[in-house]
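Researcher: Let's continue the batch. This sequence belongs to Octanoyltransferase, and it's 272 residues. Same format as the previous ones, please.
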Amino acid sequence: MSGLRFVRMGFGDEAVEYQEAWDEQRRVHAARFADEISDTVLLLEHPPVYTAGRRTADNERPLDGTPVVDVDRGGKITWHGPGQLVGYPIQKLPRPVDVVAHVRRLEEALILTCAEFGLETTRVEGRSGVWVLGDPVEQRPALGGLALDFDPRLHDEEFDPRMNGPEYAPSNAGQRREDRKIAAIGIRVAKGVTMHGFALNVNPDNKWFDRIIPCGIRDAGVASLANELGRDVTIEEVLPVVERHLRDVLENAEPKPRAIEKTPATVSPSGA
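Model: Same format as before. Here are the structure tokens for Octanoyltransferase:
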């Protein structure tokens, strides 16, 4: 089957509960595996919800016991909610699936989307998602009146920003001029078909991220299109732009199976 189709599930007052969207993902995944439908991207907003991928550590969850939905995607804990555009691309790819290449394609579509709104974003080596880069460390303002050399995050692996004041909050990373993530990506692949996907912060209340360690990252924060551009940006504005760039990137890609390195056969010495 050819052609990428988009399904706008619900936004604003019709935001889709996480469990409902998860059930729909599984239904669409089964249909795509059976070649009953073409590749499909579900697009929606969720009511406020924390979801935890398989690698989430206990100390990254909300300290106040706020409920968290444990899911079968990769990655760690994040938040979904109003003002965030969520996309679940359900694609059949050559097996064994090259997961990294799939993530890079999603990143590219979102980088192009941000650029169209006038915001330069990029990738950060070793960290998935789309990022707004901060200033070089030596040019950033000191935290809490402390010189950067005494920033506790540099020396304490267990440093918890949630217990050390708003100056360390992920939502304030822009004020600190630190790296900040504007789009998170976490996926799962089953039977050669992808599930889960991306969450692009358009105009959410980023203070929701301050209750957790977003994506398990303690030395960076979160961003949104609206905050970075200094003006109101709506889901309605961003939706067709995201769809266009996803279509351009995903339909023009030529996915290849993941290369599997073969271990050279060991040659036994003569007479062994």
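Researcher: Any comment?
Model: The first helix runs from residue 18 to 33.
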